[in-house]
Structure formats: C-alpha cells, structure tokens
TrEMBL record:
Pfam families assigned to the protein according to its UniProt record, in alphabetical order: ABC_tran
Stored CDD domains: ABC_drug_resistance_like
Source species: Streptomyces humidus
Protein's name according to its UniProt entry: ABC transporter ATP-binding protein
Keyword Ribosomal protein: no
Stated family: Belongs to the ABC transporter superfamily.
Length: 257
C-alpha cells in the first residue's frame, strides 16, 4: 500500500537544483533517508510536509495531490513533522506546547489531554510536562519536537534529523519508538547516523546531489559494502555500503558502442 508517491520531483532554490527527477513510492514502515550534506534530504522532507513546493513533478500523499493547495489542509491533519530547525514558544510549558500543536492539527478537544500525556511519555518527557520549554536542554527540546510530531498519531511521520543531540540511551529508546510507530505509519527519517538506519529502518533511500543513488533494505546496503571487500571505507557493514553506493552512483557509465 503506497501512502507517499513521488514522481519526477524537481525542487529548485533560486538557481540551485536541490532535487531532480526523484521517484519514490513509500508505504507503512520506517524509511531511512541518508545522503551527504546538501544531497536534498531536507528539501524532500519539506515538500512532503507541504511546507515547500515542487518546481516540477507530482507528489501524492495519502491519495491526495498536494500540488493542489486545496488538498493540503486535509493531509496536514494526518501528518506529523519535525523540522531540522524546530521553532517553539519558550514561555509555554511542555504540556501547553504539545497541546497547542494538537489544536493546530484539528484534534477533537476531548482527546487532547490524553494524547499529550501519551506523546510526552513516549519520548520520556512525562516528568517535565509542567516545565517551561526554555528550561529544557537541547536534547530534551529535540524530544519535545518528536512529541509534537506524534501527538495526532499521524499516518505520515516526517522527521528531519530527529536524533541530533540525543544522548545514547535516548537514541536507543527512540529507535524502539520508531519501530513501534512504523507498524502503522509511514515514517521517513533523515539522518547522518547510519547506525540508526541499521537498527530501526525497514528500508533506506540514499540521496546524492538531488538524485536517488540507492534504494533497498539496510541489509542490502550492507551487502553492497561487503561486496567491496577489505578496501571498503567505513567501520560497519552499512557504513561501507553507504560509501560504496555513493561511489557507484558517482562513477560515470561508459557509453556502449
Ligand atoms: N533556502 C535555500 N536557498 C538556496 N539554496 C538552498 C536553500 N535550501 C537548500 N539549498 C540548497 O539545496 C541543496 C539541498 O539542500 P538540503 O538542505 O535539502 O540538503 P540536505 O541533504 O538536507 O543537507 P544536510 O545534510 O546538510 O542537512 C543544497 O545545495 C543547498 O545548498
């Protein structure tokens, strides 16, 4: 079952082409989005979150063509999004902030208090519910970002570098949460931490210079690395797969005569 369908996607930022000719078909599960700095991960996530627009191509989310402005509202209520730079109101308490986002998502008022408590509990912030957001550490703010993204039990969850700033214990717990959410939802997680992909993702998409360089499972990406033999670059199978897949994508194909 496809919940996200992208075809021929092109995204430009002035003269820079951030994404070009991207085709993707995603369904429920946890999808890792990897790629070097500037590969286009954030540009892709922003278009899927309906906060940025495609220059060309078609993007369908939950069966709705989000190129049509009138279709975006319905999709946003069923979507969760953690941006790379996450804006919040420092004077709000943790509970107030998550409840505010629930309200923005058009959740039924009677459902909000329990949904907020559950989201805070899932990210390990249950005991900080009454704290002001401005008193949280950087990693706790990141967890608050994850809580606001999941409060409406989204069918599509888009997380842009969610583990940046989390301590190792929290990262391990977060991976378990991702696996749990991915049973029902389509979760797309951009990250530079390939270990997170190996541990939590069912599929991986590797972007390079705005194009899809590789798609497969974490195991198949590791196999690409193992096939390079002892000269592969990286400390783990999946790291070697990442570098090998990038190299293969960048190697020009010899024209056939
Ligand atoms: N607002 C902008 N104005 C101009 N160029 C931009 C803008 N945002 C992104 N770009 C360019 O688009 C390309 C893709 O950037 P994007 O942020 O999507 O990559 P990324 O894979 O998320 O990178 P990172 O891993 O560094 O977060 C890069 O060349 C970047 O310089």
């Amino acid at each position: 079952m496809s919940t996200i369908r992208v075809s021929g996607l092109r995204v430009r930022h002035r003269r820079t082409v951030a994404l070009d000719a991207v085709d993707l078909d995603l369904g429920p599960g946890v999808h890792g989005l990897l790629g070097p700095n500037g590969a286009g991960k954030t540009s892709l996530i922003r278009v899927l979150a309906t906060v940025a627009q495609a220059s060309a191509g078609r993007v369908e989310i939950l069966g709705e063509d989000v190129g049509e402005p009138a279709r975006r509202g319905a999709v946003r209520a069923r979507l969760g999004y953690l941006p790379q730079e996450f804006g919040y109101y420092p004077g709000f308490t943790v509970r107030e902030f998550v409840a505010y986002v629930a309200w923005l998502k058009d959740m039924t008022a009677a459902d909000v208090p329990a949904a907020v408590e559950l989201a805070l509990h899932r990210v390990g912030l249950g005991d900080r519910a009454d704290a002001k957001v401005k008193t949280l550490s950087g990693g706790m703010v990141r967890r608050l970002g994850i809580a606001q993204a999941i409060v409406n039990e989204p069918e599509i969850l888009l997380l842009d570098e969610p583990t940046a700033g989390l301590d190792p214990e929290q990262r391990v717990e977060f991976r378990a949460l991702l696996r749990e959410l991915g049973v029902r939802a389509t979760v797309l997680v951009s990250t530079h931490l390939v270990e997170d992909v190996a541990a939590a993702c069912t599929e991986v998409t590797l972007l390079d210079a705005g194009r899809v360089a590789y798609r497969g499972t974490p195991a198949s990406l590791s196999a690409v690395g193992e096939a390079t033999g002892p000269d592969g670059i990286g400390d783990s199978g999946i790291e070697r797969g990442y570098t090998a897949a990038l190299r293969a994508h960048r190697t020009p194909v010899e024209p056939t005569r």
